[in-house]
Amino acid sequence: MAARVLHRRVPRLCFLPGLRPDVTVAQQLHDQAEVVFDKQEKKEKKRSHEASPHRGYKLCYNPSAYQRSVRKMAPARSQRDTDEDDLCLSTLAPPFWQQSGVSSSHYTVSCSRHLSSTNNTLLDLAFNKAPRPKMPSRPRHQREPLPAELRFDNRAFLKSRPEYASTSLDLTRRPREPRWEEVSLLLHNVTVLKSSMTPSDVTRFLVELSHLHPGKMLAVRSDHRFLMLLRYSVENLRHFTDLQLLEVLRAFVWLELPKDSTVLEQYEAELSQRIGGMTLPQMLLAADLWRCIGKRAPKFLLGLYDSVSLHLGQIETHELVQLLYIIGEGRHCPTKLIMPLEKLLMRHLPKLVPEEVGTVSLALFKSSTSMSESAVTRIVDKAVSYVEEMSDVAIVNVFKLMRFSYLAHIAWIQAMEREVPRRAPDMGVAGLMHVTLACSALHFRNERILSAVAERVPSLLPHCRNKDTGKLLWAFGMMRFLPMQSPSFYPSLTDNLRQKKAEFKRNPEHFLTGLLGLAFVSQFPEDLLALALSPESVNIAMEFKKMDLKKDLFTLDGAVALELPDWTGPRLEACLREEMADTLWKLAQSDVCLKPAVLEAERALQDLLGGEEFVRKRMILPHTRSIDLEVHIDSSGKPVPVASAASGSVTAPLKNSLPTSPPHQGWDRGNLGVSITDNLLAQLTNHKRTSPPSSPSPTLPVPTPLHTVEPEESGKLFTRVNLTDIIPRQSSVGDAAVKLAIQVSNRNHYCYHSQQLLGLYAMKRRHLKLAGYTVVELGHHEWFPLLKKSKAERLAYLRCQVYDVLN
Question: Among 32, 270, 481, 655, which residue carries the largest CB count within 10 Å?
Answer without folding.
Answer: 481
